[in-house]
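S1.2 Input.
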Amino acid sequence: GLSLAVVGLGERGRRWARLASMSRGVEILALVDPRVEVAKAARNALALDVPVFPSLQEAIRDGLPLEGAVVALPLGSREAALREALALRLHVLVEPPAAGSLPEVCSFLFRAEAKGLLLKQALWLRHSPPIRAMRRRLWERRLGAPIGGLMLCLHEPGREWEAVQPLSALLSLLGRAPQECMKERYALRLDFGEGLQFGLALGPSGDAMQGILVVCEGGALLWDGRGAFVREGRRGLRWRLEDPLGFKWPGSGEAPGGFLPLPPDPGPSGEEALLARFRTEAERGREQKEAVEEELLPLALLEACRLAQRTGKPHRPAELIEGPTEGGGHVEASKRIEEGAKGDRG
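S1.3 Output.
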């Protein structure tokens, strides 16, 4: 299998370590964190029988045959860990952003490419069990193409909620995760029409997913963050954040809220057109099988990098960045990276 070290054993690092330990063809050989006691605590919590080191250099010096590293350190320490990993000729999976600015990210990407290494940015959220379960549920319910949604995110400093996420972010990276240090409790109230409402409690939790709502052409799904879809709606949804502790919201003082309408009933002809958009059962079954096999995509890409090195096929910049970006996704991301690289080289 592919031998990895997980660098940074905070909450995200632990999640990546758990994900890697469950991935076929991947073997964790070491846990690395400048805070050795933190790494030891993570090793005990994850029940991993691997050594702990303060740096990747120490792990290599100890004779470990590392091939890659998952870097999940805070941004202030992330760049130094990336430099160390690339200097040691290790493939790298890193929590985005890889650096504090686009030119610096480009510099890392092309530095890795010049060495024949893979540097991959990826959010743990995209490959977490709740997100994979949500995608399966959307397929099972056949509600049509998603058209919008909510993910609840608490930003620091202060208590400012950003609830509406772009569709591409919701279905791909699912936006920013709620902060781990939430101390207050809130409630999300959804109105499904005809007097039917549902309250969703939000509060301190070790789970990154606090609540996801996906609105599709034929209905809506609500994920409660605890592993089950709790309600489906066939009409527009009215949502509102309520604070049982009496917090006064900035501005008007009213809690954030909004309405997510569903398109009008398409009627028989529209429904037929909607159903025609679905692929055959055989194609769906194959797609689902592939989704299961590729659910740990970034880690699988580290393995695939071996083949690229053997064949000599270079990685294009667009293949080294994951997820939607402002201005048009992968194509625009590739252009921005190339432009940044020109500036970096010049």
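S1.4 Remarks. The chain has a mean pLDDT of 58.
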